């Protein structure tokens, strides 16, 4: 029997994750009180294979969350029930924005202070996060990205790593991303902004990519950047890092940074890494 516990921060995408699990053929139960977990697992175990794939959504809404859940997990370990824990999270700004868009109240927010509610929840869930086999940061993910990530985790025969890589382009005039682990400045590259026919295009356009990369400095930088990142990733994995944010910056975040971010994303994707990309500023002027 395959048991998957889906948990994490409110607003991080647990409902979407449960939908993905259901599409994968898991019998899904959302918001199960942790105290009922042992009994539910016993029922599934005695179903003679009818419930051999089960996904349980558990979150902070229960008042006795940690006490009951920890006891239930110890019960499952003691009785040799095999289970995986997927923990979903996102950065504070993303969670606040999602709550404002849905106009829902955070379960731990006092006087509608969403940010303080998020901080309380992070502290309460930290122990559970450390116990999780898979940590997914959904900050830069679309629902389709989350679906691909979960499918990738449970793909048979593929070596799994807990590191997610986010490649983000940005403009220095709009500020450095606060969650960046590695920041690379590509303002030394040829700038299409000063070419009238290219000014309004972005690094997603072939004309911009060709212009930026038609330089020995750009080609050498790309190769050295790829070598460095490929060297660093196994070391981050060894140290237990679960989310690596690589930020590529130019002046406005529209041309050069987008070009290099796209090339680095393609390189890492071809290498088989779990990688996502986001162009933060290329719609800004």
TrEMBL record:
Q: Which InterPro entries match?
A: P-loop_NTPase, RapZ-like, RapZ-like_N, RapZ_C
Q: Where is the RapZ C-terminal domain?
A: 164-282
Binding-site positions, GTP = 59-62
Q: Where does ATP bind?
A: 8-15
Q: Could you tell me which SUPFAM superfamilies the record lists for this protein?
A: P-loop containing nucleoside triphosphate hydrolases (SSF52540)
Task: Supply one GO molecular-function term.
Answer: GTP binding
Mention any Pfam family matching this sequence: PapZ_C
Keyword set, alphabetical order: ATP-binding, GTP-binding, Kinase, Nucleotide-binding, Transferase
**Residue stretches making up the RapZ-like N-terminal domain:** 1-155
Q: Which PANTHER family match?
A: RNASE ADAPTER PROTEIN RAPZ (PTHR30448:SF0)
Q: What is this protein called?
A: Putative ATPase/kinase
